[in-house]
Amino acid sequence: MKSPRWQLTPTDEHRAQSLQEALGIAPIFCRLLVQRGITSYEDARAFFRPSLSDLHNPFLMKDMDAAVHRLSEAFRRNERILLYGDYDVDGTTSVALMYAFLSNFYQNLDYYLPDREKEGYGVSLASVEYARETGATLVVAMDCGIKAHEAIRRAKGYGIDYIICDHHLPEGGLPEAVANLDPKRDDCPYPFKELSGCGISFKLAQALAMHHNTPSEELDDLLDLVAVSTACDIVPMVGENRALARFGLQRLNRSPRTGLWALMQRINRPLPLTVADVVFGLGPLINSAGRLGDARDAVRLLLAAERNSALNHAGTLVHRNKERREVDYAMADQARRRFTETPDWEQKRSIVLFDPSWHKGIIGIAASRMTETFHRPSVILTQSNGRAVGSARSVPGFDLYAALQDCEDLFFSFGGHAHAAGMQMPIENVDAFALRFESIAHQKITSDNEHPVIEICAKIRLDDLSAKFWNTLKQFEPFGPHNRNPVFWAENVMDTGQSCLLKNNHVRLSLRHSDGNTVFKGVGFGLGDKFMAVKGRPFDVAFNLRAEHWRGETTLSLQAKDFRPTELA
Length: 569
Hints:
- Helices cover about 40% and strands about 20% of the residues.
- It has helices at about 15-25, 25-35, 40-50, 65-75, 90-100, 125-135, 150-155, 195-210, 215-220, 225-230, 240-255, 260-265, 275-290, 295-305, 305-340, 365-375, 400-405, 430-445, 465-475, 530-535, and strands spanning about 5-10, 80-85, 110, 135-140, 160-165, 180, 350-355, 380-385, 385-395, 415, 420-425, 455, 460, 490-495, 500, 505-515, 520-525, 540-550, 555-565.
- Helix 1 (about 15-25) crosses helix 2 (about 25-35).
- It is globular.
């Protein structure tokens, strides 16, 4: 792992001072606001006090009126409606949300999630045949479908209509659906473009509720699913996403649906759960259903009404996730070994590895681990149905989707965005792809983004980290992309002598400033070696602030991101 570079986020100090005069809060928080583009009292008020009443009218979304009209016709005619979603957290929560909402007043429903290994991502031809065989005449496809030209064309020939609820970029025009709900289509005037797939499904439910005068409380019941999706799909935590996530997390922590309650029992994390708890606790369990088995198991859990049944379903996912971790760690070890055995691997600026024995459901995790370890864009490929199927992850400053566009003549298909993507190609094209991808990486990855960067919001003394400070910082939650959990920089700190190494290279911290007496506890995950290299002298620590809850007591602690020797004046 390359040593990270510490970088202070630039701040317009004049605007921060003006904001401080308007708000009357500590200057450090005004700097954090300005770093987020919040420069006026009105902006700050909307940021600190998001409201569900501020959500945009769903009928501003292109084709929303057509979607509501077609669903209303289906209700009137008692048509069979098939709910279709991708096999990840966003797709499974979308299906569960729409099924939970519609089943309150309509019963002729079914749902379908594709097999990751056999059908792959998107609207599969097998699902179209399933819809025809089971008599479905309307399919609501969620978290996918905007590129499903062939599948929807075939369905149309069978007399099956589609409503698409997607948040990915269209490609090659729009499919022949009766409604294509996607804020990212060029002609969509919807003001907020960054909803998750489940967020767009929620907007469809919201539009139906408005059209049919459904009580708003029935929409409130769906917010825990939207929060899980918004957190796990790593969409920008701004605008509508931030409002939906905040109120969804409140619901999750106070009165979650039975299935999510069961998962919360299994992960055994103290309340209140944060976005990080959802991403690293609930998300992997929900995802495990589709990675090593049937994604419908996740939907069954999310729709469960009885607690014992839900706990049994959750137990199945816990077991499956344990299996996933074993496969994941073994694959990651193989991939790391394979890469470091490659001649001149240290000079390479990308990673492309292919092994036909690797599990298709795990390659995305393996790509993430390779990128995390080596700070290089990584593509991990395996074999499926006679093709090389890959998953890719990127580093800041390298547009993965643009790089893959420069290789598209080598692919059967590809899709994704700047940070994560997937592709399929003839196996014989893998070597040519690896060479071209490496060439692109050499052109695009400069010395500025060759090393990982820790973006630091502000320097601070440990003495300033009080309960009052924490109460203000909490109002910046929920954290996520474009509203990151602030990283602070404390200079010239010392080990009190009470710090100790833990298993797996973790370290339990006890720190104070060289010129101070306030002792602060904390933890550094995977940073044991780095800590031992600096502990005998003054050093700087980059960290997040977190709260630990135990027996009704809340104490503040550090979660270290990095250490380095204090520079001499």
